[in-house]
Amino acid sequence: MRILVTGGTTFVSKFTAEYFVKRGDEVCVLNRGSREQVAGARLIKADRTQAAGLLSGEYFDAILDITAYTAQHIRGLLDTGVSFDDYILISSSAIYPETNPQPFTEDQPCGKNNIWGDYGVNKLEAERALRERVPNAYILRPPYFYGVYENLYREAFVFDCAMADRPFYLPGDGSMKLQFFHVADLCRFIEILLSRRPDNHIFNVGNRDVVTVRQWVELCYRAAGKTPDFISVDKSVPQRDYFCFYDYEYVLDVSKQTELMPDTLPLEQGLREEFLWYKAHPDSIYNRKPYTEYIDTRLKKA
Fold first, then answer.
1. Staple partner for 272: which of 74, 124, 163, 223, CB 3.0–4.6 Å?
2. Neighbours of 229 (CB within 10 A)
3. Domain CATH number, residue 292
4. Does 126 share its domain with 197?
5. Is residue 254 situated within a structural domain?
């Protein structure tokens, strides 16, 4: 297949571009050329919002839009004049208001989520802009991504604590639930959509099984060959000052995904792979948060 991947230089978009290159597809990546490119992919160097007419005459079997965060991003790419058969947008579960009943289902009302703010609003506007122009596009709504090339300080924070033999400061009793989706499973599901073209066009995607924060930390430590000692932190302490997720629990109903792809990568296996990659690439994190500094200067004294 001939595939266009937006981005292609960091985390999800990089993994996706590399995945389809390895599969033997002809992969083009659309980005501004400011970072190292995936080997085997052809770079189309452009800002998608300032590229009107740039891709006139270009045809792709599929556009995998990993990096659209606003309606302007959608319109900018479509205004390039590109031709294609299938369009798959990676949206977000942040489009579900936190007041919706859980687990969130694809047919629930969408709107502002006060935890995610403008991020979720903009993602929803991107969805709407795409459906106006490409009614048969596929839209995927994931929870938290994880895996190789992760550039956010989430698993890496826990890995750092494990490798330094630090006790782990746990929000409350650690019972808050988290739901994940491995980037390799995302690519597997994209393959299924492109080959089977199901009638449903909006999918929640993610692992069927959710884990508590405590279980997730234990698995991250286990990936590093360690066992955590936990210290419970009172809920009165702002969670994001010392921990890598908001104090917000939600679960997606992924039954429609599961009908097409029954199995996902076990979380323990995926975290082990991510740990080994991170250990070899410790400078991969985009923005390290000062969680340990806060813990050492504020929580230990408390």
1. 223
2. 10
3. 3.90.25.10
4. yes
5. no
